[in-house]
Design goal:
By secondary structure, the chain is mostly beta strands. The chain has helices spanning about 1-25, 505, 555-560; strands at about 25-30, 65-70, 70-75, 75-80, 90-95, 110, 115-120, 125-135, 150-155, 160-175, 200-205, 210-220, 220-225, 230-235, 240-245, 250, 260-270, 275, 290-305, 305-310, 320, 325-330, 335, 340-345, 350-355, 360, 375-380, 395-400, 405, 410-415, 420-425, 430, 435-440, 455-460, 465, 480-485. The model is unreliable at about 1-20 and about 555-560 (pLDDT under 50).
Length: about 550
């Protein structure tokens, strides 16, 4: 009782303090036409005019920066050193005149032409940016700032702790550093990440060992037509960008990758759509990029996304795992028509997996055609871990219950470096109609595909359309396989339901996935999955492929 009596007044003080904090919060209104920086800015009738005015404000937790909807603000919105709280963040968002119909609420636009960023959030915490449009196409008559242009940049320097940032319902497009008509040299696309000046959609950058960026959410946003990457996280070897959620976004026609992350830990990427990464429809674009790729990343879950039509002369898979990663798992994703391929895992990776995904006609690129310097591949395990480092294949890689469809007019290419250790390939459907062949990994130094015996390979219980669906000279060969047509509802389609198998005799009775010998860790969230691609419960052992069908009636088949 004594303890409770002491806590009650303390709690009361906390409630009063929190309420006072909220009561002090202010709204600051901005209008580029009707505003004046000499106004109070405290109501819609007396708004400020320019985004630069924000630097003069003493912002408090719970304050709101409100930009007039349907209006264009030229310049950059910079927020440096702000500290909010989880209960009282700073809000940056659009507002509309009272009575504006919801269907006519066009978000405010920031035009960052000639400026380094549309929105800069530097060394700040607990900030929410919502319902905004951001563009930045070239520099015009203004002397350009910096060497890159970013729609939204979240930056940590020194020993700053950047935390609790939410970007929600943003529309970022036409972000280019260079002016229209600028043409990149043919060799630029062959560089590792581009060497010239580009535009990016959303970037998180932390290159300080003493700083941390964490608890950032990028939600429900549309990013299109930027000259390099749509969403990019750049941490360092200490993995100083952590606990990030990227969900519900649409990224399309970006010149580089759709989503890319380096030096990160604890990232969830879900329910996003990425299409036409590596776009070349503007000469200012890089022209190469996977839908998503990771480097130096730990504990990343990539699920329920669509990766489609990635383009480029190298890489440009639906989603690939570059070197120096661990515990990266891709599941429940649809990957289709990506030039570089479906499965790509490079060197010095540990305990990574592709499971319960559907791949349609991935890996159609042909080396030597249209400037391509890598083959497209259905399945690629590489030993590459940097140009100057010895090759080291991935360790403990799991590939199970994927459905892979490759049309008759494509050649399915397989590359496996013999330095790979610990490979599980089970319960997959390889519906490869045409030819398949083994190829080299074709990087700076090709993968070693000699026939030396590899360690700890479990390659069992997969369904192949025919005996030539896996190359006979590949370094690893399947055992205890099944052969035949799974009877897809609509092979070649782009809906997951198109790959419901109807040949139940071939696609039932998969095996329980074992942990590889010598692997002490397994996978994040375990090896056993509770649901298949479509959310059907898996009872007992799984089936074959990404969709498990225990019973399919004639009526339901006709409906499909």
């Amino acid at each position: 009782m004594t303890t409770n009596r002491k806590l009650i007044p303390l709690l009361g003080i906390l409630i009063v303090f929190t309420s006072l904090q909220s009561a002090k919060a202010k709204d600051y209104f901005f209008h580029p036409q009707k505003g004046n920086d000499q106004n109070s800015g405290l109501n819609a009738g007396h708004p400020f005019q320019s985004l630069s005015k924000i630097k003069d404000l003493t912002l408090q937790p719970g304050d709101r920066i409100l930009l007039a909807g349907g209006e264009v603000f030229r310049g950059t919105l910079e927020l440096v050193g702000f500290k909010g709280s989880s209960n009282h963040p700073l809000f940056i968002q659009s507002y509309w005149d009272e009575g504006t119909d919801s269907g006519q609420r066009i978000p405010a636009k920031i035009d960052a032409k000639g400026f380094a960023n549309g929105v800069l959030i530097e060394n700040s915490s607990f900030v929410q940016v919502r319902n905004m449009q951001i563009t930045g196409d070239g520099y015009g008559e203004k002397l350009p700032e910096g060497t890159m242009r970013v729609g939204v940049l979240i930056l940590a320097t020194g020993n700053a702790q950047v935390k609790g940032i939410t970007l929600d319902s943003l529309r970022i497009s036409e972000v280019f550093f260079e002016e229209k008509g600028f043409i990149r040299g043919a060799q630029e696309v062959k560089s590792a990440n581009g060497t010239q000046r580009y535009g990016w959609g959303i970037r998180l950058i932390n290159q300080s060992d003493a700083a941390m960026i964490e608890e950032v959410k990028i939600l429900n946003s549309q990013i299109s037509n930027v000259s390099h990457t749509g969403i990019k996280l750049t941490g360092n070897q200490s993995q100083n960008i952590r606990r990030i959620t990227i969900a519900g976004n649409k990224v399309t026609k970006v010149g580089g990758p759709g989503i890319q992350m380096s030096g990160v830990k604890f990232v969830h990427v879900t329910d996003n759509e990425v299409a036409y990464s590596g776009s070349t429809d503007d000469s200012r674009k890089w022209g190469r990029g996977s839908g998503l790729w990771t480097w130096g990343a730990s504990n990343v879950l990539i699920e329920k996304n669509k990766f489609m039509y990635a383009n480029g002369p190298g890489d440009s898979a639906g989603a690939h795992i570059d070197y120096n990663c661990d515990n990266v798992v891709l599941q429940y994703n649809l990957s289709a028509h990506n030039a570089g391929g479906f499965i790509e895992v490079l060197g010095n990776n540990y305990n990574c997996a592709y499971r319960y995904n559907i791949s349609v006609n991935d890996g159609h690129r042909i080396k030597g055609q249209d400037g391509a310097f890598q083959e497209g591949k259905t399945f690629w395990l590489s030993g590459y871990q940097g140009e100057k480092k010895p090759r080291k294949g991935p360790v403990n890689s799991y590939f199970y219950n994927n459905t892979i469809y490759v049309a008759a007019d494509l050649v399915s290419k397989i590359a496996v470096d013999n330095g790979s250790k610990g490979i599980l390939i089970a319960n997959n459907i390889f519906h490869i109609i045409g030819k398949s062949e083994q190829v080299a990994g074709d990087q700076y130094v090709p993968d070693d595909i000699s026939s030396r015996v590899m360690e700890e390979v479990f390659f069992k219980n997969n369904l192949f359309l025919h005996e030539n669906s896996w190359p006979s000279n590949a370094i690893i060969q399947a055992q205890e396989s099944r052969f035949g047509d799974p009877g897809f509802v609509n092979p070649g389609g782009l809906n997951p339901e198109d790959y419901i198998p109807t040949n139940l005799a071939l696609t039932q009775n998969g095996i329980e996935i074992p942990q590889l010998p010598g692997d002490r860790f397994g996978l994040i969230e375990g090896l056993k999955i509770k649901k298949d691609f479509l959310g059907n419960l898996i009872e007992g052992n799984p089936g074959i492929g990404a969709i498990q069908v225990l019973k399919l009636s004639t009526e339901s088949l006709k409906a499909k």
